[in-house]
Amino acid sequence: MKTNTKTTLLLLITTAAALLAHDTTLSQPNTWIDPRHPSVAWLQEWGYMTGTGLPCKPYRGEEFGRGIIPVGDVNGDAIADFILERSRCDTLFGPSKAERANELLLYFGDKGRLPIPASGQRLGSSELGTLTRFLCAADFDDDSFVDLALRIEKLNDSAYNANGQYSIASLVIFWGNSTHRYTEQDTSHLTCYSDTWLGICRALFIDINNDNHKDLLISTCGGYGFTNGKVVRQPVHLVYFGQQGKRWGKAGQSTAADMLWWTTPAYEQTMDQDCDGRIDLVSIQQQKSIRIQYGGEQGLQDTTAVETIDLSNSGTHYALFQDVTGDNVPDLIVRGGDFEQGRIRIFAGAPGQRLTELYGNGNDSADRANHRFPLRPWAQILSPNALHEGWFDWDNELFDLGDLNEDGTSEIVAFSKPFILFYTTGNTLDSLIDIMLQTSNSPWKATLCRVGDVDGSGKPSIALTFDGRVRFLKAPPKDDIPTYGGRIRSLPHPINFRCALSSGVDTEGGGEQGAGSGEMNLSQQQPFPNSHHSYHR
Question: What domains are defined for the chain?
Answer without folding.
Answer: 35-480 (2.130.10)
